[in-house]
Description:
- The chain is α/β, with parallel strands linked by helices.
- The chain is built from eleven helices and twelve strands.
- It has two domains: 183 residues, Isopropylmalate Dehydrogenase (3-Layer(aba) Sandwich), CATH 3.40.718; 132 residues, Isopropylmalate Dehydrogenase, CATH 3.40.718.10.
- It is globular, with a radius of gyration of 19 Å.
- It binds adenosine-5'-triphosphate (ATP).
Amino acid sequence: MKLAVVEGDGIGKEVIPAAIEVLDALSLPIEKVPVELGYGKWEKTGSAITYEDLDILKECDCILFGAITTPSDPSYKSVLLTIRKELDMYANIRPIKPIDGIRGVTGRNDFNLVIVRENTEGMYSGIEEIHEDVAYTKRVITRKGSTRIAEYACKLAKNRQNRVEIVHKSNVLKSDRLFLDVCRQTASSQHVEYHDTLVDSMAYNLIVHPNRYDVIVTTNLFGDILSDMAAALVGGLGLVPSANIGKKHAFFEPVHGSAPDIAGKGIANPIAAVLSMKMMLEWYELTDEAIIVQDAIEYVINQNSVTPDLGGKSTTPEVGQAIADRVRQLID
Length: 332
Ligand code: ATP
C-alpha cells in the first residue's frame, strides 16, 4: 500500500501530522510518500503542482491531503481542481454523521446522511472568460458525468436505505434538467427509490429536517455549499471528513480549508483529518482498523481532550497524540 501525504498550506501542516500519528499507531504496512504542493510551493517555485508531482500521485494508491490556500491571483492554477481532473476523481463523498458526545448548532443527533457531490464539472468546469465589464463561467453538465455520479450514489444507497435525494435547480437552470433526468433514470434502472428537491429548499430542510435524508446526490457547486452548511449540524468544520473517489485513485481530505486565521497557533481541530484517514482505511477495506479509530476519537472527545472549537483546551498535537494513544490501547 502506497500513500501520498500532502500537508499543503495553513492548518494542513498541523492536522495531517496528527492524522499520520494516528495511522502510525495502527502499525500497518503502508509506505508514506510526502509530496509538497500548494501556495507555499508556488511562492517558492512559481508552481503549486508540477507534472512530476502528478506522476508521483498517480503512482500511489491514494492521497491523504490537508488543505491548500488558493490566492485570487488569476495565474494560480487550483491544485485541487488539477488533481481531481488529472486523476479523474469524480465523486466527492461527505458523510454527515453526529459524533458521540458532540451536538451541532441544532442540538439534534437523529440523522446520518451522506452528500455525494459531482466533482469534475458543473460550475467548476474551469471554462471562464473574464473581460473588463463582464465575466462568464460555463456550467457544464454531461450525461456521462451525471450518470457515473448517480450510479455511485445508488451504489452507496443500496448499502444504506436504498433511497437517494436528487438536489438540483432545474426550474431555472436548463443544465440541471439533464442532471435530474439522468439521476432519475439511473435510480429507476437500479431499483433505488428517489425523490428530488430544489437546492434552495434543501438548504432549509437540511437544517430543519436532516433526518429526512440518507444519500443526497448533487452537482459540484451545490454539493460544496450544502456540505459546508451540513458541517454545522455535526459541530463544525473541524469534524467533517471527505473522500474523492475515482475509478483508479482516491484522495481523502478534511472538508475545511487552510484556515489562515488560526494557522500556526496549534489550535486547529485534527478530528476531520483523522476521520478522513479513517475513510481511507475503509477504502482499503481495513474495517476493523477504521472502527478502532472511530472508537478512539469518541473516547478522546468524551475525555474532553479537544481543541478550543469544541470548547476544550488541548492543542492539535495533543489531540492527535491522545487519539493515537487510545488506538494503541485498543489494539493491545
Ligand atoms: P481557505 O481559503 O483555505 O478555504 P478559509 O478560512 O476560507 O480557508 P476554512 O479553512 O474552511 O476556510 O475555515 C473557515 C472557518 O472555520 C475559519 O474561521 C476557520 O478558523 C474555521 N476552521 C476551519 N477548520 C478548522 C479546524 N480544523 N479547527 C478549528 N477551526 C477550523
